[in-house]
């Protein structure tokens, strides 16, 4: 019997279940578990949720260049699960072919990226305000880096890292694998959306709902187009605006949030 070394090896369905659990356990599934523990801790604390603070992009050290080192290392190692997911997908076919991670349609990717960012971002601000009024969200601090020259570049890198990690793992990888397992379309979309909402739960219930809705939109977009790059573009834009905007604009501008 001869083996065709040029033919990709398609993972068996039985092997995909532990594979998915391992990839998620090393990445955003782990974040979802910690987020669940955090929200329980917040709800059982001696202060209401609305009086607590959730800080994204905190400083890691009072020594600026040590802080920069920690920030860059955190960004790099957060992307390792992405490399793992792409490697595992490459056993079946080229990840670029599976997820649309190529440059064949740059204007499509950029155009839809900006459109999705606007469609998600503007209603998202309204949801943040409603959640704040209802007291079901913690006070969100998108950036807490010191005033140093590298703060804005690091925030942009952090935004891109979030986008690449979440969209490739939670949408591209997970949707592809669950469809291979034979899951119905509705359950695939629900799983991706609930996972996205779950690892944002530490911010409060408004963040869970908002991100779950975003997850539905993004999963359906990927299923229809088979391209994850517009989602990466949209997510990067949303986070850059949130992180850099909060860092540079006067803080009293955000008092209504």
Provide the descriptors you would attach to this structure in a database record.
two-stranded parallel ribbon, 257 residues, disordered N terminus, mainly alpha
Q: Beta fraction of the residues?
A: under 5%
What is the topology, as strand order, of the major beta sheet?
A: 1-2
What would you call the structural class? mainly alpha
Please state the oligomeric state of the protein chains shown: single chain
Low-confidence parts lasting 5 or more residues at pLDDT below 50? 1-9
What is the total tally of β strands? 2
The termini sit apart by 67 Å
The pLDDT mean sits at 91
Question: Helix and strand string, N-terminal first?
Answer: HHEHHHHEHHHH
Helices, by number, come to 10
Number of domains as seen in the coordinates: 1
> Helicity level, as a percent range?
55-70%
Which of globular, elongated, flat, extended, rod-shaped describes the shape?
globular
The main pleated sheet reads as: 2 strands, parallel
Set out the fold topology.
Elements: H1 13-25, H2 28-43, E1 53-55, H3 64-78, H4 80-89, H5 95-99, H6 106-134, E2 139-141, H7 151-180, H8 185-198, H9 205-225, H10 229-248
Parallel strand pairs: 1-2
Structural summary, described in words:
Keywords: Hydrolase, Membrane, Protease, Transmembrane, Transmembrane helix. The chain has 257 residues and is mainly α. It has one domain (22-85, 106-254). The termini are far apart. Helix 3 (64-78) runs parallel beside helix 7 (151-180) and helix 7 crosses helix 9 (205-225). It is globular. It has a two-stranded parallel sheet with strand order 1-2. It has helices at 13-25, 28-43, 64-78, 80-89, 95-99, 106-134, 151-180, 185-198, 205-225, 229-248, and strands at residues 53-55, 139-141.
